[in-house]
Amino acid sequence: MRRLATRMRTVLAGLPPARGLLPLVLLLAAWQLLQSGPSPYFPAPSQWWTAALALLDRQHLAAAFGATALTFLAGLGLAIALGTALGVLVGLSDRAARALAPLLEFMRAIPPPVTVPVAALLIGYNASMKLTVVVLSALWPVLLNASSAVRQIDPVLLDVARSFRLGPAARS
Question: What is the DSSP string of 25-84?
Fold first, then answer.
């Protein structure tokens, strides 16, 4: 018995990356073996594979993945553009920062999954709702980091830009 345990440790030590997957593999194997029959709620792992292959054959999976990726990238692009522009404006103006700080901190603290039902009620379940949820999820970190970055610009650099009579566009 001790020899078997030593042999197992040697085999597992030889596969460091795969060793972390061992509990998952054992769980899926136990699930497959203990499955009593077909279940619409908890299908066996072998049924997952056949369902995934059927979706791939009908091109449904590729279309859904493409639509999701497109929505994610569009939302991320909008969040970066809006967050950077608003963050720079908030970072440049002390009044705007003081006025908007409570709202920005409140909105940042809202977990993104909470926005899904609210957006579905207000906008409806469509592509614009999905885009809105992605933008709202990604906007706050970008906005707050851009605002913080603008505020941490060394004042000497701003004085040098003023002494060279550079306009706002040339300063950036």
Answer: HHHHHHHHHH--S--SSS--HHHHHHHHHHHHHTTHHHHHHHHHHHHHHHHHHHHHHHHH
Structure tokens at 49: 């594979």
Name the residue with tokens 């700080």: 101
Tokens (6 digits) for 126 = 């469509």
Query: Is there a contact between 88 and 150 (Cβ–Cβ < 8 Å)?
Result: yes
Average pLDDT of 35-53? 83
Closest CA to 88 of 49, 145, 11: 145
Mean pLDDT of 53-63: 84
CB 82 within 8 A of CB 140: no
CB 142 within 8 A of CB 80: yes
Cα dihedral 106→107→111→114 (10° resolution): 110
CA separation for the pair 63, 73 (Å, rounded): 15
First to last CA, the chain: 70
Angstrom distance (rounded) from CA 58 to CA 167:
57
* Stated length of the chain: 172
| Tens-digit pLDDT profile for residues 64-99 | 889 999 999 999 999 999 999 999 999 988 898 899
How far is CA 148 from each of CA 76, 135, 152, 154, rounded to the nearest angstrom?
20, 20, 6, 12
CA distance 11 to 32: 25
